């Protein structure tokens, strides 16, 4: 399915950036968020003051979906890249969840959109980790 | 052995194959576990800068009593500078910490852990290795008389087990020497046979080809017919001993089949030599890495204000002013100095109210920090030594993100031991850190149990650390992307007016104590030069 979406994106060059979130997407997204993201951002979405930004009520999270997807793919500051660890479907579920949880209200994103952003992303934005 | 026809076919030259063969070990870099061997970064500076003159009458404020801050304090106070260090923690060392009985840690958003290891047991949850080439770190261990011992960083007799691979070796525990011997043996056989049959363009004169084959014969333990059929170096089925036949000469082991080995991907462990900073000889301080922190503190402890959390940084034409909070008393104070060396990790520094220039702030924003996790597991019996004859070194696994299990290089043959149960990075580390300490322990035990059946029954107590969740660090170490290294790193190497940065992140020896020390050396030389001018 992912390949098909990618092919579609490449052929038409267009994408629905957002789609109505299916209930199960957000539920899956919540579960993934609680496992993969809550260590820093907390299950409450409130983050840790002075260390990890709150996602609840954050204009960035409910803003331009491309920037949100890009951040999760590439990492930023102390945040690692999740491009290799999570599938496009999983990333779409998580991002849809954080855009609609804790009183946030923004359209969900679909896997195809994540694929598009990933295709345009710079893979070397973070250097590989070297052990010490 | 496969026939030559099974070598890469049309369009691929024999030389290309040779290059491929030589690069077999290079695939180690695919695994983060073996990124230890990935990039050669080494410290070549062996002594502090020889600074002349005096710093008397000049105030130097150092932020952070980690290895960088204490290095600067030690050297600059010797020159006569009036040095003060503000340290947010109640102890010096920064990330140079050792967890032993009574050590407490509460990660951000997490529950408090108190280390319950037995007396004498410890985990270096921060830095744990000192490579032979880090002459700057070794300069201070020598200067402060800190006893060192060898850390076994490679152990051929140790185990590996890969589960997510194909073939008969999937899920099978092997000794690393079996894989090393067999991969080099088979590869040498292929190359030697090709070279002697004229099927390989070696670019060598005929006499030199003979020398080359002689090398391959030794490298790969080849028989007279240039075949690899095993070697005692890969271990025995029954070790030799006394008597005539029990065990007498012992029973040799049989090599794994070449296709099975190739499919197993166990060759990820094999490389001719490690990168410069992972080779023999690797050291550790006797008793724990924080012996280094204590060594510095013995000399500069009187200059440190502990529990002093920096809240605000301001500069004027005449100096630097820093507001800080005494986290014990709640009292707020202000301190001024002529110059400031700031060793606070940038992950933390960018959350502090500071009047750095926009250029400086933008540069700081480009530096990312690596999430890093470790866990120490105390075992009531050193079964890896007693049952398996493995003394130190690492066990390799492809369990997701775990990378390695490392066996202790101290307390040989004693009753108990603390082993490193995982060493995780990046998204795997953030994933692990979302678990409670008890959940982390359960995951680590499941992984170890697959390799050692004695694992769970011997487990007693654990201590885990997630550096990205540790206040005053917010990450294991700085991670410069190629782009950030190009545009931001040079900016942060220069001062913002009277503030200079130091720490592992202001070096090309990132994540190592040598990087912290040498960045301090580099920056104090700049400060002193400016003062003397």
UniProtKB/TrEMBL annotation, chain A:
It holds the Pfam family Cytochrome_CBB3. InterPro entries: Cyt_c-like_dom, Cyt_c-like_dom_sf, Cyt_C_IC, Cytochrome_c-type_DH. Coiled coil: none annotated. Keywords: Electron transport, Heme, Iron, Metal-binding, Respiratory chain, Signal, Transport. Residues 24-102 form the Cytochrome c domain. The keyword Methyltransferase does not apply. Residues 1-23 form the signal peptide. GO terms for molecular function: electron transfer activity; heme binding; iron ion binding. Its cofactor is heme c. Transmembrane segments: none annotated. The keyword Electron transport applies. This is Mono/diheme cytochrome c family protein. It comes from Nitrospirillum amazonense.
UniProtKB/TrEMBL annotation, chain B:
Pfam families: Amino_oxidase (PF01593). Its EC number is 1.13.12.3. Residues 67-522 form the Amine oxidase domain. It catalyses: L-tryptophan + O2 = indole-3-acetamide + CO2 + H2O. GO terms for molecular function: L-amino-acid oxidase activity; tryptophan 2-monooxygenase activity. Keywords: Auxin biosynthesis, Membrane, Transmembrane, Transmembrane helix. One of its GO terms (biological process) is amino acid catabolic process. It comes from the Bacteria. Pathway: Plant hormone metabolism; auxin biosynthesis. The chain crosses the membrane at residues 21-44. The keyword Lipid biosynthesis does not apply. The keyword Transmembrane helix applies. It is an enzyme of class 1 (oxidoreductase). Belongs to the tryptophan 2-monooxygenase family. PANTHER family: AMINE OXIDASE, FLAVIN MONOAMINE OXIDASE. This is Tryptophan 2-monooxygenase.
């Amino acid at each position: 399915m992912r390949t098909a979406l990618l092919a579609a994106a490449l052929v038409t060059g267009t994408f629905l950036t957002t789609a109505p979130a299916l209930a199960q997407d957000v539920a899956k997204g919540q579960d993934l968020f609680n496992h993969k993201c809550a260590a820093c951002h907390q299950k409450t979405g409130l983050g840790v003051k002075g260390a990890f930004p709150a996602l609840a009520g954050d204009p960035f999270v409910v803003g331009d979906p491309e920037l949100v997807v890009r951040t999760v793919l590439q990492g930023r500051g102390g945040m690692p890249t999740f491009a290799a660890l999570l599938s496009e479907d999983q990333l779409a579920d998580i991002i849809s969840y954080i855009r609609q949880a804790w009183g946030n209200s923004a359209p969900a994103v679909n896997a195809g959109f994540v694929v598009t952003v990933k295709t345009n992303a710079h893979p070397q934005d973070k250097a590989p980790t070297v052990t010490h | 052995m496969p026939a030559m026809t099974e070598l890469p076919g049309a369009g691929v030259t024999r030389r290309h194959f040779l290059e491929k063969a030589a690069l077999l070990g290079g695939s180690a870099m695919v695994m983060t576990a073996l990124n230890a061997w990935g990039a050669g970064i080494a410290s070549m500076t062996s002594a502090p800068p020889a600074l002349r003159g005096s710093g008397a009458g000049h105030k130097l404020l150092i932020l952070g009593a980690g290895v960088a801050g204490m290095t600067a304090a030690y050297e600059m106070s010797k020159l006569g500078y009036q040095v003060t260090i503000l340290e947010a923690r109640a102890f010096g060392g920064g990330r140079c910490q050792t967890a032993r009985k009574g050590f407490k840690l509460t990660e951000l958003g997490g529950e408090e852990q108190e280390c319950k290891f037995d007396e004498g047991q410890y985990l270096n949850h921060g830095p744990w290795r000192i490579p032979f080439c880090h002459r700057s770190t070794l300069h201070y261990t020598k200067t402060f008389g800190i006893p060192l011992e060898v850390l076994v960083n490679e152990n051929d007799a140790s185990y590996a087990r890969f589960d997510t691979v194909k073939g008969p070796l999937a899920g099978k525990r092997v000794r690393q020497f079996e894989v090393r011997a067999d991969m080099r043996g088979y590869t040498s056989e292929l190359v030697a046979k090709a070279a002697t049959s004229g099927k390989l363009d070696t670019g060598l004169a005929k006499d030199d080809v003979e020398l080359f084959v002689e090398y391959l014969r030794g490298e790969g333990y080849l028989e007279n017919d240039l075949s690899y059929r095993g070697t005692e170096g890969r271990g025995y089925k029954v070790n030799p001993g006394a008597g005539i036949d029990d065990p007498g000469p012992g029973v040799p082991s049989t090599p794994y089949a070449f296709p099975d080995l190739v499919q197993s991907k166990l060759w990820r462990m094999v490389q001719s030599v490690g990168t410069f900073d992972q080779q023999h000889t690797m050291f550790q301080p006797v008793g724990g890495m924080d012996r280094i922190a204590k060594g510095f503190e013995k000399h500069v402890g009187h200059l440190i204000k502990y529990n002093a959390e920096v809240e605000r940084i301001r500069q004027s034409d005449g100096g630097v002013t820093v507001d800080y909070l005494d986290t014990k008393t709640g009292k707020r104070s202000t301190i001024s100095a002529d110059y400031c060396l700031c060793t606070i990790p940038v992950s933390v520094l960018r959350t502090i109210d500071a009047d750095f220039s926009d250029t400086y702030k933008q540069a700081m924003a480009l530096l990312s920090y690596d999430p890093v996790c470790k866990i120490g597991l105390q075992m009531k019996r050193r079964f890896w030594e007693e049952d398996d004859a493995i003394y130190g070194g690492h066990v390799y696994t492809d369990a997701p993100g775990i990378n390695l299990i490392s066996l202790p290089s101290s307390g040989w043959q004693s009753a108990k031991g603390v082993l490193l149960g995982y060493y995780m990075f990046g998204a795997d580390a953030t994933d692990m850190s979302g678990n409670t300490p008890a959940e982390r322990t359960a995951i680590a035990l499941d992984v170890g149990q697959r390799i050692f059946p004695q694992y769970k029954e011997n487990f007693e107590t654990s201590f885990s650390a997630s550096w990205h969740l540790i206040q005053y660090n917010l990450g294991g170490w700085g991670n410069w992307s190629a782009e950030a290294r190009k545009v931001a790193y040079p900016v942060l190497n220069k001062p913002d007016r009277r503030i200079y940065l130091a720490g592992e992140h202001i070096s090309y020896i990132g994540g190592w104590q040598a990087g912290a020390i040498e960045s301090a050396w580099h920056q104090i030389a700049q400060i002193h030069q400016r003062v003397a001018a």
